[in-house]
Amino acid sequence: MNSAPRAASKDSGAAHVAPRGGPATRKPWIEHVPGSVAGVVVEIGGLTQLATQVLWSAVRRPVGYWRAVRDEMYSVLRLSWFPMILAVLTFSLMIGLLGLNVTNLLGANNRYGQYFFIQNTREFTPWVNSMVVAGIVGAAICSDLGARKVREELDALRVLGVDPVRELVLPRIISTTILTPLLMLVSLAVGVVCGLFSAVTYGGVPSGEYWATVFKNLTTIELVVAVLKSATIGFMIGIVGAYKGLNAGAGSIGVGRAVNQAVVIAFALVFLIDLAFNMITLGLFPELQTVR
User: Fold this and answer.
1) pTM score, two decimals?
2) pLDDT at residue 24 tops 60
3) Which residue has the higher pLDDT, 2 or 129?
4) Rounded distance, CA 108 to CA 205, Å?
5) Which of 39, 120, 242, 259 is the most exposed place for a label (fewest CB within 10 A)?
């Protein structure tokens, strides 16, 4: 007869331990943010955390990974050199012909070299080179790390006391950071030669006038900014590909979705970084806005 009152007393005691509105019912602040905004915040936080971890690991102990970096650089170069040259060659000829149509209408074909070189250095070549690296190298990094996660290799490394970020992520990011500006310099040379071909064959511009206007606008600031921009983009491509690969979903479908998301995010960030570098550079060095 006393069992029911005792059960009731126990229930009332449990209700008394966790009162309504107490600390036990408080939700994290992220749950009050809309889902789309919360997803973006989580992605940015994860990318920032991985980038900080990679930089700290590289600076804290800068030994033991350079052989892997060399192998990754060879792999990146083997994958991307031909598509990069082909893309730059095709787009340079196309942009060169369109630019000659404009300068021909203005009667300024002899000034074509300086305009083509400025656009080629600031906008066109870094953009094409970055797109090739993001579409090929970034996708390769994401798919490799995602496949390793699906096969539970990352968990096995952690059980063995090996840091997957240092062993697998760090060499890939350093290789993309170094090789992206080097590939950009090669593509810049290819673009300048394509501009010369367009100017001489289609625009009737003497090669001497073309090279004179190119070298008159070839400054150290232009090259340094282009190299720094490409290095930043290469680092970002490696971080995005590695983060998406490390957090890929289960199965081959999850890896495919992670690769797709990594490429799309990298493409978007390439535009943002390119815009930010150009605005900062023209603000710090306003003399670059003057065509020589």
Assistant:
1) 0.84
2) no
3) 129
4) 10
5) 39
Q: For residues 156-184, give the mean pLDDT.
A: 92
Work out the end-to-end distance of the chain between its first and last CA atoms, rounded to an integer number of angstroms.
Answer: 102
Q: Between 281 and 291, where is the model more confident?
A: 281
Secondary structure, 3-state, the chain: CCHHHHHHHHHHHHHHHCCCCCHHHCCCHHHHCCHHHHHHHHHHHHHHHHHHHHHHHHHHCCCCCHHHHHHHHHHHHHHHHHHHHHHHHHHHHHHHHHHHHHHHHHCCHHHHHHHHHHHHHHHHHHHHHHHHHHHHHHHHHHHHHHHHHHCCHHHHHHHCCCCHHHHHHHHHHHHHHHHHHHHHHHHHHHHHHHHHHHHHHCCCCCHHHHHHHHHHCCCHHHHHHHHHHHHHHHHHHHHHHHHHHHCCCCHHHHHHHHHHHHHHHHHHHHHHHHHHHHHHHHHHCHHHHCCC
Cα separations (Å) of 9 from 6, 42, 158?
5, 44, 48
Tokens representing 78 are: 């083997």
Quote the CA–CA distance of 135 and 152 in Å, as a whole number: 26
Could you identify the residue written with the tokens 């300068």? 103
**Is pLDDT at 207 greater than 70 in this prediction?**
yes
Q: Give percent of the chain with pLDDT exceeding 90.
A: 35
Look up residue 185 and give its two tokens.
Answer: 């310099």
Q: Locate 35 and state its tokens.
A: 């889902």
For residues 257-274, average pLDDT: 93
